[in-house]
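User: Fold this one for me? It's Light-independent protochlorophyllide reductase subunit B.
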Amino acid sequence: MKLAESMYAGPAHIGTLRVASSFRNVHAIMHAPLGDDYFNVMRSMLERERDFTPVTASIVDRHVLARGSQEKVVENIQRKDKEESPDLILLTPTCTSSILQEDLQNFVNRASETSTSDVLLADVNHYRVNELQAADRTLEQIVRFYIEKTRAKDPGSPDPGGAGRRQASSSTESGTEENLKGACGGEKTKKPSANILGMFTLGFHNQHDCRELKRLLAELDIEVNEVIPEGGLVSNLKNLPKAWFNIVPYREVGLMTAVYLEKEFGMPYTSTTPMGIIQTSAFIREMALMCHEVYNNSSTKCSQTDFESCLISNTKKVPKTYINKQTHFVSQAGWFARSIDCQNLTGQKTVVFGDATHAASMTKILVREMGIHVVCAGTYCKHDADWFREQVSGFCDQVLITDDHSQIGDIISQIEPAAIFGTQMERHIGK
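Assistant: Here's what I get for Light-independent protochlorophyllide reductase subunit B.
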């Protein structure tokens, strides 16, 4: 822990609360002292949604320190269960309350006995992970919880996980067909479909990105099966394996869930971010290959009409035709690259800094599609440093991995770039 004037990624409990408040009819209880309960105010101010933020703070005060937290935490869970009737109550400590070393799992077990809602403890090490890592872990934990719960209710259903593991060691046709079964005995959708994983509250332009992704999928005749967690219901998580593949737009949140679904159900996924003409083209080609693979291996074939109208009918011709049409007649990227606004930056020095996904994608767009010189590309996602270095290698002169805003400020002062592509922090530095 460190005292900082400002932070790029917050503490772990903020990530957990972002995931919980993104789902519909999920309530989070934060076991925290006064001062750690600012999430409600922050989200209400930034999102400006009609509904109240579904987070309750179970305050650690002097009485709790004297008698222990169990009675108060269990009482808060039971009270919210009666008042709100949520599908899920998620309990999370904070860095400060973790110091008490209390057995919160025992509190959850006790509260579960008298609650009609599901009660789950966020399994996150608050001293080792940041906001983004905690969000990724929490989303995977919730998905795992509900898929295993559905399996337990229907023990006679096929075990897609077992089929997936058998397929890894044996390529028999029966194993492949079992592996392509949907969740808990359900089958894949008739038409190609995808899950979008990782859209959640307080994300950077997540709503706009989700809208564009849905439009892209609709134009390719691919259905959207589920979007989680933003606006999703935990009761629908059992339907995730019915999709043909998963889309992870941002590496920071959703990647663990995609890996889990691939391991358990053999579901392919793409983590290519469709930013810029080149990466969007690669994204479309990946979807075409995944659709074709699932169609060839699936025991349930879609109709001939669906087959001929969608992406899977020809993995080379259909994507290429669509990409060429969008590039030459629809997209305005080429026009912007020739505009005076972009021409003024051609050959000029720039700095890019942000989360790993956006910083890497923006660096590639500036260099490959606009001819702009990126002197320094950096990210505050230190846990994903190796991937980031690999992505921006050859596109910039210098790579910076840090979560200290003063370091990026010093770099910007030394370089004196013509433009800065970064976070709100870099905006203040540039001024």
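One thing worth pointing out: The chain has three domains: 12-129, 155-329, 339-430.
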